[in-house]
């Protein structure tokens, strides 16, 4: 049986804390930087590593730079070259969401919730089909919601302190839109079994909560057109997401997603995808199957390449944001099909200028220039 190669532990100092990192004794500086990327959210090209007053060169082995077991290395992060929620600093939480939610919870604890549910509200909900419960400091959905049952088409309970979505949500059979943004919902207290009964649901927003994972049950919501799950703590998307054949908009920015299932290529109706500020290093080749894709946001990830067929097959793609990734403009121009993509987006930009709609007048190349590496 072959023995494992020897390793050393390097103590990396960053943002007021010390991070122990185990690396092969024969590793290069570049390899150490890649290991530090998910631990610090700083892209390799934004890292400067210093040991005993010397800057460690990417191609050099750690041993040649006198970095040994127990050595202390300082990490200096370049401004703007980070992924995920950004570099961790002394005075900030590791998650922007955590800061927001902590503040939200404190408000809920100090303010007395309004009494908003009653016979008058329930009667109105039944007539209009709209239960507007946003910004009421609610800790739970009121019982009157369940009494209205099939009458409700839209339930907006955003910006509250709701911790639980019970199985009773299944009673809202006619629900088209469910907005639960900015609450306190975690994996333990959301009934996906109940949600799976909502076969008319078109729009689901669970952004700014405390979700760590999404279950396979998500794939049963086959009528979905929009799925918003930004600003959670998700580290992946389930394989069953490929069952969402009609979903057009997927907003999943500011999570901790490290990889995507190839089944995402089966979401054939997707026109807009936002995966900004995650921990992605690559995209599956299946992205090339998203023939209707028009907008793709990928900034602040650790991406080093794009799927080879992205530009060739996604012929409707006109907006691509790769700022803050390892993919620079020079790399982007070498991807097959780039010329056609560039022509499409420039035509769009010119139209915006002609009609003075949605443009500052400055054309965005879509990625950082190579000089950002320096």
UniProtKB/TrEMBL annotation:
Keywords of the record: Leucine-rich repeat, Repeat
Xref: PROSITE patterns: LRR, UBIQUITIN_2
Record domain Ubiquitin-like: where: 8-79
SMART domains from the UniProt entry: LRR_BAC, LRR_TYP, UBQ
Keyword Repeat among record annotations: yes
Family per similarity comment: Belongs to the SHOC2 family.
Role summary: Leucine-rich repeat protein that likely mediates protein interactions, possibly in the context of signal transduction.
Name of this chain's protein: Ubiquitin-like domain-containing protein
